[in-house]
Amino acid sequence: MKAPIGILGAMAVEVEAILAAMDLREVQEHSSMKFHSGTLSGVECVVAQCSVGKVNSALSAQVLADFYHPRAILNIGVAGGVGPQVRIGDVVIARACVEHDCDSSALGYSMGMLDLPGREEPVAELPCDAHLSQMLLEGAEKLYSGVHFGVIASGDQFVADREKGKWLYDTFGALACEMEGGSIAHACLINQIPCAVLRTISDNANDDSKVDFPTFAAQSAQKAQTLLQSVIRSL
Ligand code: ADE
């Protein structure tokens, strides 16, 4: 059997359509998370809801790596849009992720700069796999307008402040912010697993986000899941 594709989403709404569409074979629990093995459009997958935040999502990626040896890990879900052209309902696919809240500036590092095990030099960006991202991008452009490719900024913060959103764009060139992609890309880099991050915009990381997020999260999350199902066979 071909190695599975791991699919991680933080909230139920971000994975439920994928779980519903799977031919489920087995559910195993590791680190208090449920890992659903089976096929999606005939492709072997392991899907888990990892809960919100960088630590939960990094742990889930490590469990996937250790127990399921996936050939790729995909993170899907919603995000706040932070670039000036990024609107609610748009799709953002990560070229790379950053961990925007990692701050060792007192030691002379720029914001987001990370030390990684086994590396001499710190890294600023956590790269996503070029082939996987390209397949997602082509699939997205067939289905939707408003598709963007660039940096996604992750941190343990729901951003609902226009100034913070602007800072993420100015500092990292980020097009979207969320709370898991960077840590999943981080775990994938350490474990040498190709990864991709696919997000649809639920709000604009500004003062309206507290209202926009609950209003648009479900329909935006559904768009990401529809897109993933449409491209999974090409990954
Ligand atoms: N996920 C969706 N919207 C977000 C926001 N504004 N900040 C962080 N994560 C998000």
Please give the count of helices.
6
* Portion of residues within helices: 25-40%
CATH superfamily: Nucleoside phosphorylase domain
CATH-defined topology: Rossmann fold
Largest sheet: 5 strands, mixed, barrel
The share of residues in extended strands comes to: 25-35%
> What's the mean pLDDT score?
97
* Termini separation: 16 Å
Structural class estimated from helices and strands: alpha/beta
Series of secondary-structure elements, N-terminal to C-terminal: EHEEEHEEEHEHEHEH
Domain module count: 1
Number of strands: 10
What strand line-up does the widest sheet have?
Answer: 5-9-8-6-10
| Contiguous uncertain segments of 5+ residues | none
CATH architecture: 3-Layer(aba) Sandwich
**Top-tier CATH class:** Alpha Beta
Q: Which cofactor or ligand species appear? A: adenine
Morphology call: globular
User: Compute the gyration radius: what is it?
Assistant: 16 Å
Q: What this model shows, in words?
A:
The chain has 235 residues and is α/β, with parallel strands linked by helices. It has one domain: Rossmann fold (3-Layer(aba) Sandwich). Helices cover 36% and strands 30% of the residues. It contains six helices and ten strands; from the N terminus they run βαβββαβββαβαβαβα. It has helices at residues 12-21, 54-68, 130-143, 162-172, 181-191, 209-231; strands at 5-9, 23-30, 33-40, 43-49, 72-81, 91-99, 126-127, 147-154, 174-178, 195-203. It has a five-stranded mixed barrel, surrounded by six helices. β3 (33-40) and β4 (43-49) form a beta hairpin. α1 packs parallel to α6 (209-231) and α3 packs across α6 (209-231). The longest helix has 23 residues, at 209-231. It is globular, with a radius of gyration of 16 Å. The chain starts with a strand and ends with a helix. The mean pLDDT is 97. Adenine is lined by residues 78-80, 158-160, 177-179, 202-203, 205, 209, 213.
